[in-house]
Amino acid sequence: GFDQDYQGEILIDGKNVGSMNQKELVSLRKDKISLIVQHHSLIDFLKGETNKEIYPILRGERKRSKGKPLRKYSTGEKSDLAIQREKKSLKRIYLFDEVTNALDDKNFFLFKQWMEDKSKDTLILIATHDERLTNLKVNRLRIENGKLIYQNEEETTNLNYSKINKEPISS
Fold first, then answer.
1. DSSP string across the chain
2. Nearest-angstrom CA–CA distance, 149 and 142
């Protein structure tokens, strides 16, 4: 679902998310938004490779895979499966919550490359404490001491929440 307790507007393809009914919100999430959280949201009874290929399978492009059971994958391998799965979703908005923490350096590097390339035509939002993400070649927003900070390669700007219809975060 979507959090409906906020001020201001969220526009996706020119439509205000706050004025959408439940059916429209479900359709928006299903068709345009990919969400990956720290705990992977994988399907336990499916094999690992089937989890990774779920979108092509649902589109009829692939058959279910054979392979090892999901319970035999490490936490990092499960994170990688979840990321690989969402890469195949072909959605336009990706929301990531602490997804890189358990990735080894090789898989982190592959994810970082994909993200830098994909961010040219797709919105990618990441909530993370992973220091390896600090030198990405993308625009970044950080919340620091109650201020929203916009940062790209050329500049860093403090944004006042009132400019975007938000109150500062209280400590």
1. ------SS--EETTEEGGG--HHHHHHHHHHHEEEE-TT----TTSBHHHHHTHHHHHTTSSPPPP--BGGGS-HHHHHHHHHHHHHTT--SEEEEES-STT--HHHHHHHHHHHHHHTTTSEEEEE---GGGTT-SS-EEEEETTEEEEE-SS-EEEEPGGGGT-PPPP-
2. 5
Contact between 12 and 93 under an 8 Å Cβ cutoff? The reply is yes
For the stretch 112-153, pLDDT in tens is 888 888 888 888 888 888 888 776 666 667 777 777 677 665
Do 68 and 48 form a contact (C-beta atoms < 8 A)?
yes
pTM: 0.67
- Ramachandran angles phi, psi of 21, nearest 5°: -80, 175
Closest alpha carbon to 36 in 92, 81, 103 = 81
